[in-house]
Amino acid sequence: MEKATEFSLIFVNCESYENATQIARILVTEKLAACCSLLTNVKSFFGWQGAIHERHEITMMIKTSEEKSDAVETRIKELHADDVPEIISLKFDTCSKPYYDWMKQVLPVE
To answer: In DSSP terms, which residues pair with 35 in a beta bridge?
Structure first.
């Protein structure tokens, strides 16, 4: 395993597959993310504007660099259908050496 603390995994839930796909394609095309994985059939329960809501969602797992995290957040806010999108970032601790090398190649330091 390779120490990889300059990378992070950002979780974002979207109400529709179309919105998640749009965000994922743009983030990868603009080289803000190395990879976006979509997990379907997620059921979320949350409080919003005084009521409990539940809905099926798509969870995005966005792999990016710490350096690009703010730009990723900005793009998500521009593209996301929700007024307050869920954006949670976890810093990598380690990852496999080949994956680390690939991330470094796809997301070069600017």
So the answer is: 63
> Could you please report the per-residue DSSP string of 8-20?
EEEEEEES-HHHH
110 falls in which pLDDT band (50, 70, 90)?
Answer: low
Residue with tokens 């120490």: 3
| Residue 105 token pair | 């190649």
Distance CA(27)–CA(36), nearest Å, equals: 8
Q: How many CB atoms lie within 10 A of CB 10?
A: 21
pTM over 0.90: yes
Distance CA(104)–CA(99), nearest Å, equals: 9
Domains of the chain: residue spans and CATH = 2-106 (3.30.70.120)
Single-letter amino acid code for the residue at 55 = R
Mean pLDDT of 98-110: 88
Say whether pLDDT at 104 is over 80.
yes
